[in-house]
Amino acid sequence: MDLLSSLTLAVAMITLAAIPGPGIFVVLSQTTKYGLARGSCCIAGIFFGDYIYIALALAGLTALSSTMGQLFVVIQYAGAAYLIFLGLSLLRHSKEPETNKKQGKSVLNGPLQAFAAGLLTTLSNPKAILFYASLFPSLVQLDRLNTIDIAIIYAITTLCVGGVMLSYASASLYLNSRSLARSSNWQAYLASALMVGAGIYLLVRS
Hints:
The chain has helices spanning 3-18, 22-34, 36-59, 61-67, 69-94, 98-103, 111-123, 126-139, 147-178, 184-205. It is mostly helical.
């Protein structure tokens, strides 16, 4: 890949990541409730989902889409259902007495769950599928890539998608620190609404 192709791909990645959608909603929900560390786990899941789609694109995502179309639909609905489940679980957990919360972990109280939420959000996002099935091959000459080119693509994805998501997460932390409504219940309600909203968005767009 030459410099122009790399810059074009980077701009496309940043633009795609910056457009408000389920990925941003999930990152904000994790960061709002559990902090930047948990939000970072969610972000890692998001761009790992991008890694998977890049690998599929290199293997011929367009052909896979035609032969595995129903599987993509199942993934979309499963991801949406999982996000709604996590959002409702978070809301239910926030209403429990503090003694009950300390006795067991919340369904969202773990880095692995945050990573899975981010991963499923990307895999079930029609915007991501459309990008890697149509726009991505037009930006990158897939038949001319070597090992270094592929490494550059993954690096661009990590820096651009991760950078945008971290910016949103940091901004949410800043706004929370300046908010007058700092109760844990308020944070839980907001996080739950963002998570459920992301799931509903995916259902509507499926």
